[in-house]
Amino acid sequence: MSHPASTRVQEFIGDPFADESVVSQEKLEEIFTDIQSDLRFDYELNGCLNCGICTATCPAAHYYDFSPREIVQLLWTENLDGIYDAMQEKIWACAQCYTCAARCPFGNSPGGLIMIMRETAIKHGMESAKNVLRPFSRVMLKLISTGNQLSPDMINPEHFADWGPNISKVDAPLKLLRKAIPMPTLNTTETAWEVNLKTSVELYTIWEETGVLDQLETIDENLFDVILDIMDEKREDWDEWKDEQEDED
Questions:
Q1: Helix pair angle (221-248, 212-219), 10° resolution
Q2: Which pLDDT tens digit goes with each residue over 162-193?
Q3: Spatial contact of 56 and 105, defined as CB atoms under 8 Å apart
Q4: Burial of residue 56, with CB atoms counted within 10 A of its CB: 0-12 exposed, 13-18 middle, 19 or more buried
Q5: Number of Cβ within a 10 Å radius of residue 200
């Protein structure tokens, strides 16, 4: 579905009591263009009856200042200031359960639109994206460096303090329990499973080609530098291994 040639931009955009926008009009238009140009946008936004079913069935809307209907309305009317404002906090309240998409009589997917907005916030290095993703830096490092999202040794009070008071009770004999798992884990607690060198290099290549690493650099430059060092080391190891195989042949 393509959008009509005529625009739905409101005559006035933003807070009527503010002297000017928080950011320039050019920047607002750039952000919205990135959202609208996403291939998923036309499939996720078809219109809005303003019925409120999405908000009424949204779990996050019951606990946070968040409304899927508001997100759809902002995008449908191309309220650039409102979109930018929502990207500072509200879009991060969505649980991505997609109940809204299942219930919308117009076939909209507010959850899908929010995913696009989140990715755009990361692309533009918004502070909201940095704040939300900062606690996951250790998980990202583990994933990119080992191919594992989590590992047993990460489940401890120091690394996941936000899990609440019960995390302090975690004091299990992890190494002993790992030996009881009936699969080749090499009895390690540093990773959930072993990922071979070739797979690691292939994962790095995918993350490079798809722009994941570029996005990571905008959010956490220090983590990005660490990942580059790990990538270079593993690629050198992979090249050395291939050279050894050629010599044996």
A1: 140
A2: 666 666 666 667 777 777 776 665 567 777 77
A3: no
A4: middle
A5: 20
Name, in order, each residue with C-beta under 8 angstroms of 128's C-beta and a sequence gap of 6 or more: 87, 88, 89, 92, 121
Tokens of 166: 């019960």
Query: What token pair was written down for 96?
Result: 């991505």
Q: How far apart are CA 182 and CA 161, in angstroms?
A: 31
d(Cα 248, Cα 76) in Å, to the nearest integer?
Answer: 63
3-state secondary structure of 41: helix
SS3 182: coil
Cα torsion for 150, 156, 158, 159, to the nearest 10°? 10
Match 């019960």 to its residue by tokens: 166
Distance separating the N- and C-terminal Cα atoms of the chain: 56
Residues 90 and 96 sit within 8 Å (Cβ to Cβ): no
- Write out the H or E segment, with its range, that includes residue 239: helix 221-248
Residue ranges per domain, the chain? 25-124, 134-248
Calculate the alpha carbon distances from 173 to 144, 170, 178 in Å: 27, 10, 9
Interatomic CA distance for residues 55 and 104, integer angstroms: 10
The whole-model pTM stands at 0.72
Pick the CATH number of 25-124 from 3.40.50.2300, 1.10.1060.10, 3.40.50.300, 1.20.1630.10: 1.10.1060.10
pLDDT tens readout for residues 48-66: 989 999 999 999 999 988 9
**Amino acid, res. 6:** S
